Structures are given as C-alpha cells and as structure tokens.
C-alpha cells in the first residue's frame, strides 16, 4: 500500500471517528455548557431536554429549551425545537450559510411590573466597563428557509390590569442574505398570528440588504378590538371607547435609494366598524356602523395622502352644550391640546384668534370620493332658559375631487333632514385651500317653533307655527383677510303664528312673507331685496287691565344696569381700545347699505282690544293692503306709499305719500285719511274720561306729517259729525271740565266739529310727542270752555272775549252803536252754534248809578213841566224823554218843577215859601229825590231786556235759546278795565 493510500485511509478513519464521536459527544457537552453558561449569564434557570447533531448533514436540533422567570418557576422563554442546518460551503465562502432555520412552538411570557419595569429589564442593562465597539466589516451571511411554527407570546400588564396574547404565530422567510449575488433578489416573507382573538396576516417582498431597501408588505387585519389597546395611548383620554373594530387590507411599499429621500407608500383599505364613543360618564357621543377608507396612495414621509374613497355609514353624533357653554365634543381633545389653548388665551387673545404660524406647506390630502349616508345629529343646548333640542336626520354628504392643494376645486353635495319634514341641501363647487365655495342652497319647511328657546327670554311671545325656507346661492371666500360671504336668492316664512304668552291669545300671524331677489353681502354689510310681500297677516294690539300695551310687554325686561358681569364674561379678555383718528376727530361709521325695491301688503287685519276700559272696547282694521316703493339707506330717494284699509269693515283708511325710513336722514311726507268711524263704540272711553256716553257721531281725520332733517311739521285736521252725548257716566277718572259745553262751542249749525291742530318740533327732543301735544290741545279746549268760553268761541268765529259782555252808560239801558255791532257778531256765532244757549245778567254800578238816576229823574221833572205847558197850548203829546229844554228855558221850568214838589221848603218870617236861586232849588230837589235798590234792580233788568231784544230782533237767535237770569247781586264780579254798568253773558 502506497504511502498516499495510507494517509488517505488514515484521514478517512479519523474523519469517521470524529463524526461518530461528534454525533455522540457534542450534544451532551453542548447541552451542559449551554445550560450552565446561559443560567449564569441570564440569572435565570435554563432547562434543555436534549440536543441532536448530525455531523454528516451539519444539522443541529435543540429540543425542550426553557428559561424560567428570575427567582421563580414560571416560564419566561421556551420553544419545542430549534433546528439549524449549516451548509458545508460556509467555510469556502467565508460566510455563514444556513440551508434551513426552523423554530417550533416558541413561547414568550412578558410581564410588566407595577413600577413600569419588565421581567427582562435587567437583561437590557449595560454591563460595567462595556464599551461600544466601532462597526467593522460586515459579516456575510445567507440564511435560507426560515420558519417559525405555532409561536405564542403572552403579555401581562399589571399596571393596566390587562392581558394580551398572540397565538398561532406563523412566520416564513425564504432567505436573508447580504452576499453580493443575493442583494437584488426579492425576499418574500410572510407572517400570521391571532392576537387577542384577531387574525393578522403579513406577506411581502423585500430586498433588505440592497441599496434601495426595496420592501413591499401586504397587511391583513380582521376584527381588531381597538378598546383593548386604548390603555396604551401615551396621553390621557377624555372619552371611552367601548366598541370599535379595525379591518385592514393594505400594501406597504418602502424604498430608499442612495442619497435620496425615503419613499413609503401605503395602498389598500382600512376600516372601522361598530364604533361607539362615549364621554367619561358613559353618555354616548358618536356611533357609526362603518368607516371605510380606500387608500389610493398614502405617503406619510412627505405627508401626501391620496384617498380614492372615504365612506361613513350611519353615523350618529350627539352634540351637547351645557349651561356653562361648553360643548361636549370639544372636551374630547387631549389634555395637551387644552393646555396649549389656555396658554394662548393667557396672552390676551382667544386661541382661535391667536397669530397664525408662519406660512409653510401643509399636508396635501386628495379625496376622490367622500360619502356619508344615513347620518343623524342630535343637538341639545342647555344655555337657553328651556333646553333646546334639534334632531337632524337623513344626513347625506357626497364629495368629489376634494383636495387641500391650493386652488384645487371639488364638489360637495349635502342634504339634511329637519324635524316635521324640513330639509336643507347645499350643493356646488368648493375649494379647501383657500376656503371658498359656490353652493346652491335649498331649504324648505324648517319648523320655527322648535327654536323658541333662543328668543323666549328676549320676547314674551310663543311661536306656535311657521315654516322658513330659502332657495338661492351662497358664495364664500376666505382667501383674503376680510371674509367675503354673499347670498342671493329668495326667503320665505309661511304659516307663521304666535301667541301672547301673558294672555295666551293670538298676537301675530301671516300666511306668507316673501323676500324675493335677496342679495346679502357680509363685510361690509349690504342687503338688497327687490320685493317684500306679506299676505293675509293678522296682528292683535291689546291694552291690559293695568293699562299696559301687549306690544310693550313683548320685549322682555333686560337686566338692570350696573349688574356685575357674569363670571364667564368677566374672565374673557377685553379687546384692546381702538386708536383715535390721526386728526383727533372720530369718524362716523357708515351704516349698512340696505335697499328694498318694494313692499306689498295684502289681506291684513289688526285687532284692537282695550281691557283697561270697562266695558271692554274692541275694534278691527281689516282689508289692509297696498304698496311701499323703493327704499334705500344710501340713495336720496323717497318711496311712494299707498296703503288702504277699513275699520270694522266700513270706515276707510288711506295712507299716501313718500318715506325713506332706511336713510340716515329720516324723511317722511305722509298723508293719512280716515273717514266715517262710528263713535258710539268708543263709549267706554268717553264714559271713563269725559263722563258721558256717546249716543252717536262719526269721526274723520286728515293728517299730514313731514319729517326732514330731523324736524317734524304736522297738520292734524279732525272732523266729527253729529256728535251727540248720551247719559252721564259716573267715573272717578272723568274730567270735571264742561265737556258738553265744549262740544256745543265746537259744533257748528250743521252738527260738525272741525279742528285744525298744527304741531311742529324736533325729533332730537326726548320730550317731543305729536300725540301728546294733540291731547294737550284738546285738554286746553276743555279748559278754555270752562274758563273763557267766549274766547274759545271767538277763536272759532271771530270776536274774542269782548263778546262776553255789553257796557252801558251810567243810569242808561240804551244799547249804543258799538254794542249793536258786538251783539250782531254774537248773534251770528250763536246761529252757527245752535246747541249753545245764552244767559243774560244785568248789573249796575251802585254809586254811579244812583247819582245818574237821580240826575235823570231831576231832568225828567223839568221836561214834565214843559210837556204840560205845551199840551195846554194844544201841542201834540210826545214821550217825556223826547222833550228838549233849551238853555234859556231851564230856570223857568226849574221854578215850576220846584213849586210842584211837596217836600218841606224854606219859608220867610210870614210863613210863605222863600224865593230861592236856581242852584238852591236844584240842590233841594236833588236832595229829596230817593233812588232805591229796586230802582237799580229795575235798571239792570231793563239792560238785560234791551240786549235780549236786540239779539232776538236780528233773527239769528230764537227766544228759546236766550234766558234772562236774575243776578245774585246788583254789582257784577269785578273785572279789570270793565265797567260795573254792564250785561254779562254765559253760554250753556
């Protein structure tokens, strides 16, 4: 045998011996070393059932391996078998090449302690003196046919009192290699498990050691129970999630070229099912059946999201605003977000108005299709006196081509169902960045009574009916600093009805209110309405028993001035004071620009009832209709006014003229005509305030009001026909003034009263009131009728106060020419006022009248002597007063009259009457003439009769209207500048 053969045989035998010895010796030695070294290194008990090694195939099998918990008996890590098959070419290639790696039934038990540490935390601690080594040349390897079979992981979380399990873990990786020949070969790993009862599947392709790191994984998750994992959210949650399932079917692709930004793309679908979200008190906030997101391409590394479709099915949202004004959904924000908001508010501005962050490109989100179906929203507001509830149903939202990219336009179609068949729809193009929209709006039959809580404190009316609707176009643009919002279209409120909450009776209602061709711009406010039409409207005006008007009580009383602000209001930051104008003058703010093309009224009715009066008074103004022309707050135009109506169905009311109530400088030029209103129904008022019922009469008036430059001029012509007072009414509020006399003074011979009361004033005077002035004028008329009736009559007919008397010469009852003219005027006035009666009282001036009568009687005695003498001579008899004594005759007739007197006369010594000078004779005669009170009373009576005769002789006054009244005294009431020798008149 040659030497070569011997060496070959020897080597062969040695190889066989080594193989056989390694087959029998390596397993027990390796087992002993592993158990000892691992137990010492891990500080845990390590167990190993057996090791099998095949030196011929280089296959190693480790079976029954286990590591117990430190200081315990529970299993920490274990597996049934680890099988590794080393390729013989590893040495030649200077790399680790494994044909197969198989791990069967591995089990890991992870424990999280109360202090937050884990049962493996000590294994992660860095050993003292251990230094970080610089990376060297990469170690080449190629591992093939990697499999994990029936793995299990158990995680016990003591702080959260939770347990998680991953069972039936299956993993397979065909190969992993960083060797040059395999760098561009795709690896197709797979993974599946059942985690907490939810199956997971992961399959993919990857080049883990290629320069591109190209990787693609297909992820499948079914029925992931999300509430099971909410405990691990790293922040405090302000809500509960009792139910939510996650499904994922997606593909994740990753690639990183050298010197390029990594690319991560996610495609596929993700969905949430059976989601229920509650607040911390277990009140439901949000629920929906399914949310499905179809991801066309989601690139999280560059924040670019392209979603093919987002579908939300049957969402239910409960929105609640509590009494403090806090909205429940806003409370869902994490505590960190709330703290940031509070920090902004501490700086002096609300978070919503804080300075925006510097401009930078935001995430780009594209949604090809957005679909929300069968949604419902329940809104409850507890800030109102009575909680307000609004259930919205059948909500459908459909969006197309929505994007946050600048200027990219999509479409939106929203429809919402309101209670009682109300509906709202918005449809049209929208842009998210910047926000803009052009939406067609269609709202119909939205029920108004449901919104009562929002105005129940402001007004004391209860809205019992009404539907609001609109159809038009809404344009919104937030691209500029000042938002641009415009709405065009029409608005209607139909079948509106309301009641007075105090009396529970109808207050205001109408069949339809239309605002046609409405055009509203916001910032600055500009409103244009082509036509306002109100049809079949009704309003009730009522005076309550306490004399207040229902329209006054409609507005609820506001809080008293000086009341400290509410806590929430006081806590709000105050807006900074406005800077004054540079010129030091405050510039007036321009008011809103409002234009109304026309207002038409048809079929109106106003009911008036006064319950303050007993008996109750009521009246109705019906058939109200007409038109008001174009009005504007900016244009210098006046609208034509033409309105008509009827009181109680017969008395016509007409209002015509021009107005512009919207102008800053109010302009009004209106004429109001009201004809033939029956006055007998207003007996409750006349009885209470005048003390008389009204038997009959009709009222008409013509009013004109002119307001320009805040100055008012009005003409108030009042006409009352055939006013007849009825029975006297006992009323403590009735005036004590002579109402009947005043009416008689005002009423002409045709039974008509005409009053023309002009009023002027300025609107800037807070005390100025047209009707207050008119009422005061009427009161003045009554007062004048009582205190100076002839002055009132004179103001109506001419003549004035001088008609109230006739003056006479002392001792005379003759009516002079001047008095005749006065009595003619008085007679004409009485003729025009047939309801008036005249009382005449004659008076005398006692002292002057006595002297005058004595002188007159003395003169009469002289005239009698001359008359007797002429009669003896055969002359014709004439009245004594017509006898005229010439100056040369006076002493003769004086002597004759003296001799005829029988009073004692002076005598001489022989007893005969002495012959006396004329002056002495006149003196004795005057001394012996006695004027008694009866003579004075007779003179006063003759004066009254003389005046009466003049009045009756004129034919203007009938005897039944003129009465001579016996005065209570001979002397009248003293009046400045008037003689006591007079006749006084009184009107009745």
Can you describe this structure?
- There is one protein chain.
- The chain is rod-shaped.
- The protein is an alpha+beta fold and 988 residues long.
- The chain has 14 helices and 40 strands.
- The chain has a 36-stranded mixed beta sheet that branches.
- Among the domains are: 494-555 and 592-662, no CATH class; 665-787, no CATH class; 800-987, OmpA-like domain (60s Ribosomal Protein L30, Chain: A), CATH 3.30.1330.
- Helix 10 (817-832) crosses helix 14 (933-954) and helix 12 (890-900) packs across helix 13.
- 20% of the residues lie in helices and 43% in strands.
- It starts with a helix and ends with a strand.
What are its keywords?
60s Ribosomal Protein L30, Chain: A, 988 residues, 36-stranded mixed beta sheet, 20% helix, 4-stranded mixed beta sheet, alpha+beta, rod-shaped
- Supply the number of helical segments: 14
What is the global morphology?
rod-shaped
Class of one domain, according to the CATH hierarchy?
Alpha Beta
CATH fold annotation of one domain: 60s Ribosomal Protein L30, Chain: A
**Alpha-beta content class:** alpha+beta
Rg result? 59 Å
Tell how many strands the DSSP assignment holds: 40
Low-pLDDT stretches are: 348-359, 558-576
The main β sheet shows up as: 36 strands, mixed
Q: Name the CATH superfamily classification of one domain.
A: OmpA-like domain
Proportion of strand residues:
35-45%
């Amino acid at each position: 045998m040659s030497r070569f053969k011997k060496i070959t045989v020897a080597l062969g035998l040695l190889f066989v011996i080594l193989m056989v010895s390694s087959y029998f010796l390596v397993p027990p030695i390796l087992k002993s070393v592993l158990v000892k070294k691992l137990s010492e290194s891990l500080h845990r008990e390590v167990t190993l059932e057996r090791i099998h090694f095949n030196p011929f195939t280089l296959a190693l099998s480790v079976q029954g391996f286990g590591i117990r918990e430190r200081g315990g008996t529970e299993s920490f890590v274990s597996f049934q078998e680890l099988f590794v098959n080393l390729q013989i070419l590893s040495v030649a290639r200077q790399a680790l090449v494994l044909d197969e790696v198989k791990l069967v039934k591995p089990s890991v038990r992870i424990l999280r302690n109360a202090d937050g540490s884990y049962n493996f935390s000590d294994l992660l601690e860095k050993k003292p003196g251990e230094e970080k080594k610089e990376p060297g040349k990469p170690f080449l390897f190629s591992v093939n046919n990697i499999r994990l079979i029936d793995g299990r992981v158990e995680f016990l979380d003591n702080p959260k009192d939770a347990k998680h399990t991953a069972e039936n873990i299956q993993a397979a990786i065909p190969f992993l290699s960083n060797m040059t020949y395999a760098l561009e070969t795709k690896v197709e790993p797979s993974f599946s498990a059942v985690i907490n009862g939810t199956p997971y599947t992961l399959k993919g392709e990857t080049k883990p050691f290629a320069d591109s790191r190209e990787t693609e994984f297909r992820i499948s998750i079914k029925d992931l129970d999300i509430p099971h994992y909410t405990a691990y959210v790293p922040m405090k949650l302000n809500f509960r999630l009792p139910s939510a399932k996650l499904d994922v079917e997606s593909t994740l692709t990753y690639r990183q070229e050298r010197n390029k930004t990594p690319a991560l793309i996610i495609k596929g679908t993700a969905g949430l099912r059976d989601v229920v979200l509650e607040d911390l008190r277990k009140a439901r906030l949000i629920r929906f059946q399914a949310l499905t997101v179809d991801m066309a391409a989601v690139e999280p590394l560059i924040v670019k999201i392209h979603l093919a479709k987002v579908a939300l099915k049957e969402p239910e949202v409960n929105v609640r605003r509590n009494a403090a004004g806090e909205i429940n959904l806003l409370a869902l924000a994490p505590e960190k977000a709330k703290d940031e908001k509070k920090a902004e508010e501490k700086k002096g501005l609300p978070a919503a108005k804080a300075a925006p962050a510097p401009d930078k490109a935001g995430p780009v989100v594209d949604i090809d299709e957005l679909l929300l179906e069968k949604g419902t929203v329940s809104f409850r507001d507890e800030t109102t006196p009575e909680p307000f509830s609004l259930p919205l149903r059948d909500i459908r939202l459909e969006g197309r081509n929505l994007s946050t990219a600048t200027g990219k336009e999509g479409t939106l179609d929203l429809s919402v169902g309101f209670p009682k068949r109300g509906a709202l729809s918005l449809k049209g193009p929208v842009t998210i960045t910047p926000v803009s929209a052009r939406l067609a709006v269609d709202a119909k039959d939205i029920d108004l009574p449901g919104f009562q809580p929002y105005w129940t404190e402001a007004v004391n009316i209860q809205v019992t009916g009404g539907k609001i609707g609109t159809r038009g176009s809404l344009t919104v643009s937030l691209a500029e600093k000042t938002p641009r919002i415009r709405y065009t279209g029409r608005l209607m409120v139909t079948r509106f009805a309301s009641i007075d909450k105090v009396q529970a009776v109808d207050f205001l209602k109408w069949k339809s209110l239309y605002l046609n061709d409405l055009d509203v711009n916001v910032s600055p406010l500009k409103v244009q309405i082509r036509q306002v039409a109100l049809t079949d409207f009704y309003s009730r005006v009522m005076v309550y028993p306490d004399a207040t008007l229902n329209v006054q009580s409609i507005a609820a009383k506001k809080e008293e001035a000086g009341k400290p602000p509410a806590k929430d209001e006081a806590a709000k930051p105050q807006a900074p004071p406005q800077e004054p104008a540079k010129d030091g003058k405050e510039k007036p703010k321009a008011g809103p620009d409002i234009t109304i093309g026309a207002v038409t009224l048809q079929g109106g009715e106003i009911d008036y009832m006064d319950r303050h009066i007993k008996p109750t008074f009521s009246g109705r103004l019906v058939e109200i209709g007409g038109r008001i022309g174009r009005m504007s707050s900016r244009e210098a135009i006046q609208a034509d006014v033409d309105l008509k109506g009827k009181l109680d169905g017969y008395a016509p009311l007409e209002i015509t003229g021009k107005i512009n109530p919207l102008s800053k400088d109010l302009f009004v030029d209106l004429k109001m005509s009201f004809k033939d209103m029956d006055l007998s129904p207003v007996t409750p008022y006349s009885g209470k305030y005048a003390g008389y019922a009204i038997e009959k009469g009709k009222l008409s008036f013509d009013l004109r009001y002119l307001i320009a430059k805040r100055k008012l001029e009005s003409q108030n012509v009042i006409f009352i026909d055939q006013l007849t007072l009825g029975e006297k009414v006992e009323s403590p509020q009735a005036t004590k003034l002579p109402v009947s006399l005043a009416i008689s003074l005002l009423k002409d011979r045709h039974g008509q009263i005409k009053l023309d009361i002009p009023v002027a004033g300025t609107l800037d005077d807070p005390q100025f009131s047209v009707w207050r002035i008119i009422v005061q004028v009427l009161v003045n008329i009554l007062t004048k009728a009582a205190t100076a009736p002839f002055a009132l009559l004179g103001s109506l007919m001419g003549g004035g106060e001088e008609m109230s008397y006739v003056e006479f010469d002392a001792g005379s009852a003759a009516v002079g020419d001047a008095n005749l003219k006065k009595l003619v005027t008085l007679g004409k006035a009485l003729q025009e006022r047939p309801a008036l009666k005249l009382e005449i009282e004659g008076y005398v001036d006692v002292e002057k009248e006595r002297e005058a009568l004595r002188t007159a009687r003395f003169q009469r005695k002289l005239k009698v002597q001359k008359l007797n003498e002429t009669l003896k001579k055969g002359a014709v008899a004439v009245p004594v007063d017509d006898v005229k004594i010439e100056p040369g005759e006076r002493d003769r007739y004086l002597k004759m009259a003296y001799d005829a007197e029988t009073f004692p006369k002076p005598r001489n010594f022989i007893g005969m009457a002495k012959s006396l000078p004329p002056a002495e004779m006149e003196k004795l005669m005057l001394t012996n003439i006695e004027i008694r009170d009866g003579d004075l009373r007779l003179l006063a009576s003759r004066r009254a009769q003389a005046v009466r005769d003049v009045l009756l002789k004129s034919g203007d006054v009938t005897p039944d209207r003129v009465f001579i009244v016996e005065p209570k005294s001979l002397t009248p009431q003293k009046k400045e500048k008037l003689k006591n020798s007079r006749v006084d008149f009184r009107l009745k």
